[in-house]
Structure formats: C-alpha cells, structure tokens
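Same chain as my last thread, 148 residues:
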Amino acid sequence: MRPNALGRTIAGLIAVVGLAAGSVATAGTSFAATASTAQTAAAAQPAAVAATQNFGLTSAEAKNVQDFLADYWGYTGAIDGQLGTNSWKAFQRCLATYWGYTDDIDGDPGPNTIKALQRLLKDSYGYTGAIDGIAGPGTRAAFKRFAA
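reply #2:
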C-alpha cells in the first residue's frame, strides 16, 4: 500500500503544480489585453444580448410562443425556447397585422415592437401599464400570461 500512497502523493503534487502554472499563464495573458481589444469586446456584447430576448419567459413559455408563431405567423425555426431574430420577425408580422406595429420586420424587439406587444397584452392579458415601449415588470407579467 505504501507505493500507491506515494504515487497518489506525487500525482497530487503534479496536479497542484500544473494548476498553479496554468493560473500564472492565464494571469499573464489577462494583462496582455489592449484597450482596443476591450473596446471590441464591449462593442460585440450588445449584439450577443440582442440575439435572444425572452423578456422574462422561461424556455417552456417561450416554446409556447414559438408554437403559436409557427401555427399562425410563418415561424419556421426551431422550437427551442429562445426568442431570437426569427421568432421576433414572426411576432412582428402578427403585431403589424393587428396591433399597430409599423416598423420594419427585422426581428429586433425594440421599443416599437414592445409598444405593439403592450397593446396586445393590454387588450387580452391584463397589462395595465403605459404603452411606453419599455418591457418592465407589468409587461413581463402580462407576456407570461400570454405565453401560458
């Protein structure tokens, strides 16, 4: 049993040394980022965030919305619970037909999309707030009722 204990001790030391070396290497590269790299990363961040916007819906609730959009508004993407560009394009077609949305069908759930969504939610899903294009708590709660 003694040789196994020695082997485990050596293996443990090698692992600790490897982790420490990796941490030092990572720390060295983390300081190597330039200001332009940081600016590029910051500029890329909003596009990634805008790619999916569920406005507080769970994946299951968002799948319900996608099913609705697939049944009635030409959504052909995956029913994956992520309301991305194609989900919002289909929703904008609905909002343009019935709820006063007049902007481009671009899949960006911006303020005018939210205003039209708020009109829909005010009509049938208990939204009582202002039609202000802000997806605040009242809009999110009513959107959850829509998605249920």
